[in-house]
Design goal:
This protein is of the alpha+beta class and 319 residues long. The protein has 2 domains: 3-99, Phosphorylase Kinase, domain 1 (2-Layer Sandwich), CATH 3.30.200.20; 108-308, Aminoglycoside phosphotransferase (APH), C-terminal lobe (Aminoglycoside 3'-phosphotransferase, Chain: A, domain 2), CATH 3.90.1200.10. Helix content is 42%, strand content 13%. The chain has 9 helices and 10 strands. The chain has helices at 3-20, 56-67, 113-124, 140-154, 160-169, 221-233, 238-250, 263-287, 294-308; strands at 29-34, 37-42, 45-50, 88-89, 92-98, 101-102, 186-188, 197-200, 206-209, 216-218. A 5-stranded antiparallel beta sheet has the order 1-2-3-5-4, with helices on one face. A 3-stranded antiparallel beta sheet has the order 6-8-9. The relative contact order is 0.13.
Length: 319
């Protein structure tokens, strides 16, 4: 990302940090710099430049939801932008947020799986009619399709591409973002993983969900699909999966009918997230001119299992 975008975000975060407390003039820190967004922190303020093709109206609706009192204690609320502040970086929409302390990747035993399950259940129980609208659709299937497109562009000639493609084409059209999704009126996060939780106030506040870029109406099972895919692939231990799913169902989450047999609802989303993860692994490894690592290869192997399944069978954990 061009340094000028980082400067714009750093200046914006710095100006809001000044308004909140005496200036400490920290050097802006780049927290993320990807195709789907650049995130810069100064002190207690984080500024994000969203993807260039972001639907501005949909983003505004999502930010309104995050700021709504009904989501207090579930979603990290954005900070209000000064009307005089710049509204975009290089034509990209910008949002600003209080800083929250992320999950520590060096301490996996402390990962907040129960909190993630409970927060998702509380999000899914919010009635959309209580929120400002119209609400956009959840972007889970669209993100999966973008990952496959990225793989096709970056990983030409890699043998594993065919395996991922077979798994992809075994999904129903709606899960490939090629047809309207089944009618759903549940508020969903759209991209749940542990990187989407922070403690606020940092460093020891309550856990909250962040990143509303994919939030909207859709199938709530999609929000459980990434942990389900990891579990089915053998990457998430059964006891951790049960902690997450148990917390979700105990908090009356509506995505699955039964914690004892959740795969009727989770099968298609878990397959889609497996393909998405494998496609991104191929795209990244090709761009970096390296072989797949062990975890990436496990996801390719999971795609091979999916591709070999008859349509009437569900993608359940490997034995």
């Amino acid at each position: 990302m061009a340094d000028s975008v980082v400067r714009v975000l750093g200046d914006l975060a710095h100006s809001l940090e000044h308004a909140r407390e005496p200036c400490v003039c920290e050097r802006p820190v780049v927290l993320a710099d990807r195709q789907d967004g650049t995130v810069v922190r100064t002190g207690g303020v984080v500024a994000k430049a969203h993807a260039p093709d972001t639907d501005a109206a949909a983003l505004a609706a999502r930010l309104s939801v995050a700021a709504h009192p009904r989501l207090a204690g579930v979603l990290l609320p954005p900070l209000p932008l000064d009307p005089a502040a710049p509204l975009g970086a290089h034509g990209r929409p910008v949002s600003v947020w209080p800083y929250g302390a992320p999950v520590d990747p060096a301490d996996p035993d402390a990962a907040p799986w129960e909190e993630a399950g409970e927060l998702l259940a509380r999000l899914h129980r919010v009635e959309p009619a209580e929120l400002p609208g119209p609400l956009p659709p959840m972007r889970g299937p669209a993100k999966a399709a973008l990952a496959v497109a990225r793989m096709r562009a970056a990983a030409v000639g890699r043998p594993a591409v065919a395996t991922v493609e077979r798994a992809w084409h075994g999904l129903p059209a709606w899960a490939r973002d090629e047809a309207p999704a089944p009618a759903a009126e549940t508020l969903c996060h759209g991209d749940l993983h542990l990187g989407q939780l922070v403690r606020h106030p940092a460093p020891a506040g309550r856990w909250l969900l962040i990143d509303v870029d994919d939030l909207g109406l859709g199938d709530p099972a999609w929000d459980l699909a990434r942990p389900a895919a990891w579990y089915a692939a053998g990457l998430l231990p059964p006891e951790v999966w049960q902690r997450f799913l148990g917390a979700y169902t105990a908090a009356q989450g509506p995505a699955v009918a039964s914690a004892a047999d959740p795969w009727r609802q989770l099968d298609v989303p878990a397959r889609a997230l497996t393909v998405q993860t494998a496609a991104l692994a191929l795209a990244k490894s090709a761009a970096e001119r390296r072989d797949l690592d062990e975890v990436e290869q496990i996801m390719i192997d999971a795609c091979a299992r999916i591709a070999a399944l008859p349509p009437e069978l569900e993608f359940e954990p490997s034995s």
